[in-house]
Amino acid sequence: MVKTYLTGFILLLGLANARAECPDGWTIYAHNCYLFGHTPYSFHESQNFCVHFGASLVNVESDAENTFIRGELMTLKAPRHWIGLTDEVNEGVWALYPSEEVATFLDWSHDPVWPQPNDGLNANCVAYFNDHDYHWVDEPCNNHFNPICKMPVPVNGNRPSVVG
């Protein structure tokens, strides 16, 4: 019995000392790490890039998270970045990638000249666009934009470094 309590105490002490950090080159926000890639890839190549780091293209879940990402992109003056959202499986139904869950948060560009989403069968993947004030635009998946990767903050664990 004393051994059980002692083991539990040591475990809690270890957890209390654990530090949550993102890998070098990643940005922390709300218990997640974000990588704003600098090399353009197609949508599917971008997902593979993120998976290499144990992450996935970002699935934007809330207005707060979207505001954070838009702010980072504005600071970086980044042109276009893929997010994990597509209607490749079911045209017009925007789903998170790769889970295929229907998205509950959307932030389409409201540009009256170029309303979004607008390209039907030709544009099945979603990116932030600088010329749309970093709101979302549907684009052909084979276009080459930079990825935004997201993963939970590792705790004293594997911290992959960014290459490329």
TrEMBL record:
<dbReference type="Pfam" id="PF00059">
    <property type="entry name" value="Lectin_C"/>
</dbReference>
<dbReference type="InterPro" id="IPR050111">
    <property type="entry name" value="C-type_lectin/snaclec_domain"/>
</dbReference>
<keyword id="KW-0732">Signal</keyword>
<feature type="signal peptide">
    <location>
        <begin position="1"/>
        <end position="20"/>
    </location>
</feature>
<dbReference type="InterPro" id="IPR016187">
    <property type="entry name" value="CTDL_fold"/>
</dbReference>
<dbReference type="InterPro" id="IPR016186">
    <property type="entry name" value="C-type_lectin-like/link_sf"/>
</dbReference>
<feature type="domain" description="C-type lectin">
    <location>
        <begin position="29"/>
        <end position="150"/>
    </location>
</feature>
<protein>
    <recommendedName>
        <fullName>C-type lectin domain-containing protein</fullName>
    </recommendedName>
</protein>
<dbReference type="InterPro" id="IPR001304">
    <property type="entry name" value="C-type_lectin-like"/>
</dbReference>
